[in-house]
Model the fold of this input.
Amino acid sequence: MLLRKVEELGTLSDAARALGMSYRHAWGLIKRTEKLIGEPLLKTRKGGKDGGGAQLTETGLRMLKEFLRVKKTFSKASLDEYEWQNLFLKISARNRIKGEVISVEKDNVSAVVKIRVDTPCIITAFITREAVEDLGIKEGDRATAIIKATEVMVSKD
Done:
C-alpha cells in the first residue's frame, strides 16, 4: 500500500501520512525492502521552494504490480495448497539465478521456459501457461530462475 500511495501522491511524506504512519517508519520500510532486494524502489528529490517528491523506480513499479497481482489472488474465495505456495514464492525463495529467456514453448496447460544464465548453462523450467502469460514472459526478457526444493520456477525481472 505504501508504494501505491507514493505513486498516487508523489511524496513519501504524504503517502505515510495518508496511511497513518510516521515518515520515519515509512522510510525504514522502504530502506529495509531495498536492502532485501538490492535495488532502489524510489527516486527522490530534496525539498526546497518547489518541495520534494518521490516517484517509483522501474523496480518499484514492478513490485507494486506484483503486489496488486497477489492482492487480486488473495481476493479469491478459496485457494488450494499449491496456490498458497506460489503466493509466497518471491518472499521465501533463496536460490535465484538471473538470465535471459531464450525460448518459450506453450501448450494448452503448461509451458517450457529456457533461460540462459551468465554461467554457461541453460535452465529449463516447466510452469503453467497461465504463469507465462501473467508474467508476460517472452524470448529476450531478463528473468530469474527461482530454485525451491526440487522445483525450478520463473519470475520476470
